[in-house]
Amino acid sequence: MNRRSFLSGAATGLMLRTLSPAAAQGAFPSRPIKLVIPSSPGGVHDIIARLWADKAQEALGSIYTENKAGAGSIIGTVEVARSQPDGHTLLLGSNTTHVLQPLQTPNVMFHPINDFEVATIFATTSLALLVGPSLQIKDVSELIALARKQPGKLSYAHAGLGTSTHVTAELFKKVAGDLDIVPVPYRGMGPATLDVIAGRVDLMFANITAQIVEFHVTNKMRMIGVTSPDRIELTPDIPTISEQGLRGFASQSFFGIYAPTKTPAPVVERINSVTNEALADKAFSEKLLKAGYETLRGLTPTQSMNYMKDEIDKWRPIMASIEQKKE
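^ thats the sequence. predicted structure below, dont judge the formating
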């Protein structure tokens, strides 16, 4: 990824926030903490943000959430990047905010590494590979064989350019031998799911939720693989794509708590320790699991940053390939 410079407005905001170092060194927390969710209410980002806030405020005091959707998550992310680096304004960050958007958006107004401290990455979600009822295949190897036999005949639905449902499908096509499966974009997973169920599109990748599992159980769609490195607790009977022949294939969305760069290390470490203590609470971990999230317990801020850097390196060539196809 090339280093990106801030637009002048973003640069000014980032510079202004450093003018009050004394405030950043005070007791933490000294007032309610705002957790910015850079997406609309009700999605996977919103759900996990509220679960974390409800639990973390037991140790950190009042935490309130604020949805700042827009520009594919950029608006809310930039707001936190410009905020005072004292730990009282945080971001529920993810692979969308810190990997996919920076890789696909020219002149994005923040740098995912230089402009944030990663307090912790603490959960992931995986996707399911689903086929419609009209596609008579049982597993990933049969899907690959059919796609090779009929290049350009199969289609997959996704929730929009650059989304995890889109880039995961492109990664799958590449790893499986540059399959020719036609993408069909939608504005969200709702209409995409309906068209796969109706047989208008052949397959899709979707975040694993209770609803998706229900569609599988009722045979409205068939789940033939999951994108996690290991089988997940919510669908233990569904094999991973990796164990079905595409060794090492994995695609997960990660979620973490981010603070502006130059937030004091003790503040970052405090947020990290509170999160890991929460994950040690069985009731909290079970809430996450039932909501479709896999927990990542024990990552330090440094390990969380390295995790994110690895994801950037993994997705860079895929995003570059997608951009070339758009031209």
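The CA atoms of residues 17 and 84 lie 5 Å apart.
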